[in-house]
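User: I'll paste a sequence; please echo it back and then give the predicted structure.

Assistant: Echoing your sequence first, then the prediction.
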Amino acid sequence: MTSETLVPVFAALGDETRWSILAALGEGDASASALAGRLPVTRQAIAKHLAVLQQVGLVEPVRVGREVRYRVIGAQLGDAARRLETIGAQWDRRLAAIKEIAEGL
């Protein structure tokens, strides 16, 4: 995952409502109407947030009869988590080196 793909993902996740939607979808697929029933947001607002999440590849629509349900795309979240883990490990190494230098003074 590159910075070009990571930045939009984190920008999408930076919105509290989208984060809540993603967490709700983590419990199972749901339609915009079902999500609106669980969250303090209108169905129209949910639909807009789902469009943003779909655009960055975090959710996908799945037609079930006449209903459109959304599901989380775990691979994209996994890629973002691995990238953050790599960045965190790099910072841990840098901080350990600084600590070693500071303790040697």
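The helical segments are 3-13, 16-26, 32-38, 43-55, 74-104. The beta strands are 30-31, 59-64, 67-72.
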